[in-house]
Specification:
Layout lengths: L5 H12 L30 H8 L14 H9 L8 H8 L1 H11 L6
Helix pairs in contact: 3-4, 4-5
């Protein structure tokens, strides 16, 4: 998982209960997830070398926030890595105009 905030921290017990070994790329040793996840290398979410290092040996890459370059995830997908949700979902989270257009296309009512 890329990002060591509260969501990653809260994911740790659920992953353990499912028998999933969780590795979280944290921004610092003091990040919330670093306090509870044993495998928590330190690195920036925007650093492709740090992300690739965290991905080494992993079955799936996921992320807990939208501050990751979607292009970097797209390259990993093109190389055959499993990114869940995919880079396209991240584009929607990063660009609210794109997200609203997609919702409009689906006929989802967006209360203002």
């Amino acid at each position: 998982m890329i990002g060591g905030g509260q969501l990653a921290r809260m994911s740790a017990p659920a992953a353990a209960a499912l028998g999933v070994r969780l590795r979280v790329l944290v921004e610092s040793d003091e990040a919330p997830a670093a306090q509870v996840v044993v495998d928590a290398p330190v690195g920036a979410a925007k650093d492709p070398y740090a992300v690739r290092g965290a991905l080494d040996g992993a079955d799936v890459l996921t992320f807990e926030h939208e501050h990751i370059p979607s292009g970097m995830l797209r390259v990993l997908e093109e190389e055959g890595e499993s990114v869940q949700p995919g880079s396209l979902a991240l584009v929607h989270a990063q660009d609210k105009v794109v997200m609203r257009r997609a919702m409009d296309d689906l006929g989802v009512v967006n209360p203002q």
